[in-house]
Amino acid sequence: MSTTQTTIASAEAESHYQRLKSVAGAAFFLLVQRFPKLLQFYRNEKSWAFFRFAMACFGAALVVLPLSLWHSWLTAIFGLFLFIASILLPPAETESATDRKARELGAQTVVSGGDYQPGDAPPAHTRLFLSRLHIWALDKHFEPLLVIPTPEISSLRVEPLLEDWVLQVRWADHTAEFSFDGFFAERLARLAEDSIRAVLPGDLPEKQRQKAAGAS
Fold first, then answer.
1. 23-48, pLDDT tens digit by residue?
2. CA atoms of 59 and 78, how far apart (whole Å)
3. How far is CA 72 from the centre of its chain?
4. Residues 6 or more apart from 202 whose CB is under 8 A from it?
């Protein structure tokens, strides 16, 4: 095989990978956007109880019918798995610790904040609790690592850094950077950026938005 053919094959493989990555990223991004609605379903006692009941009936049917009709043990095992899973599923959780913290802080939205390094401390994974007055970066124990006054935010920028993606937030004389890694790093960083923009009291000044767009 010639060098040219090898280069073309490599380029085609990379193109297929990028296409697959884009589709998977879009699907995950849509799931993240719909996640609050899925949580509402889980936290509705009647809906969740009906789901478990339907799952148990469907699983039982898969166990009984194959044995009487076409002797498919694989289907029966899958049905038995569904039936047992419906029993073991936890009851509906009407409110999570994240919900309680969001209500306590008055936050309208909660999104992943990636990793944030406060001072000389090691980086910690954060969640951003967003409101029109403040943005809180909390660690897994709901301890505040950073509080940003939302009306004072002057610019937002998402950019790649080595294998990660970084969301940079500027306000007054301060700058904070939230680092996202993994397959969906860019999607999560842009989701955080869009969520912050949604709670800003107004659009960023035109020059700052042009500067942020030109740098990304």
1. 555 555 555 554 555 555 555 567 66
2. 7
3. 39
4. none
- Which CATH architecture is the domain 97-215 placed in? Roll (2.30)
Using alpha carbons, select from 159, 180, 177, 179 the residue that is nearest to residue 169. 177
Distances (CA, A) of 12 to 7, 17, 19, 42, 143: 9, 9, 10, 43, 47
In the chain, what are the domain boundaries? 44-88, 97-215
pLDDT of 110-139, one tens digit each? 999 999 998 888 999 999 999 999 999 999
Cβ contacts of 155 within 8 Å, gap of 6 or more? 168, 169, 170, 204, 208, 211, 212
Kindly state the helix (H) or strand (E) to which residue 202 belongs, with its residue range. none
DSSP 143: -
Query: How big is the CA angle at 195 (ends 193 and 201), to the nearest 5 degrees?
Result: 100
Distance of CA 133 to the CA centre of its chain: 23
- Nearest-Å Rg of the Cα atoms of the chain is 23
What is the rounded distance in angstroms from the CA atom of residue 9 to the CA atom of residue 204? 45
3 state DSSP class of 20: helix
